[in-house]
Amino acid sequence: MEAIVLCAGYATRLYPLTKNKPKPLLKIGGIPIIGHIIKKIESIDGISGINVVTNDRFYKQFSEWKNECRINKPLTILNDGTTSNENKLGAVGDINFAISQKNIKGDVIIIAGDNLFDFGLQDAVDSFKKNNSNIIVLHDVKDKNLARNYGVVDVDESSIVKKFEEKPKNPQSTLVSTGIYIFSKKTLNLIKEYASQINNTDKIGTFLEWLHKREIVYSHVSREAWFDIGSHDQIKKAEEHYKKSNSR
């Protein structure tokens, strides 16, 4: 299994913090966000490589970060060639780009590069292997008003995805996507098909809504802390959380 970490966004909502620095390299608890993510990936059994997809504007910064840190798995920094929010490939476009550039043929775990989470990833991988099917990792925010800010997922009694909606006005559940997905090797061709035929490669959620009507997608619900670093408020909450964790 290979990992793909999506770090090619421009995070305009966090300006001026991210005007000259990519969001995944912002430090939380003294460590870049991507550093926290890499530690989680390295603990997964059977990970053969980690691929970080960034853009042309921030490629040099990610390359410098790679040279400065100690990573126990083969790591590649991929430049998708984009330069602004206007010409970005989008999340699905970058997944397809990474799969093509690295000629990935096996299973993949995809993680959004602005994610912070306390839970490990091995349980989700074990669930993926048990069900022999795609997995989306969810978190219960327990508040439908809060759920409106995320990709909301409705699942059946077997934990199979029935519906996925990006930022719905009337959420059907409080289970939201954490930006962590595991796709089987047989799904790679569908990613390629979607990227080439559908004129909307920005949101993975839109792809998931398309995918679950063609293939079974299981859910795995996390029980520990999760932060989507999309606002200054979330940065503050994450920083407070990691300070408390480090002081224990």
TrEMBL record:
Pfam families: NTP_transferase
InterPro entries named among the record's database cross-references: NTP_transferase_dom, Nucleotide-diphossugar_trans
Origin: domain of life: Bacteria
Segments forming domain Nucleotidyl transferase: 3-244
Gene3D superfamilies named in the record: Spore Coat Polysaccharide Biosynthesis Protein SpsA, Chain A
Protein name listed in UniProt: Nucleoside-diphosphate-sugar pyrophosphorylase
The species this protein was found in: Candidatus Amesbacteria bacterium GW2011_GWC2_47_8
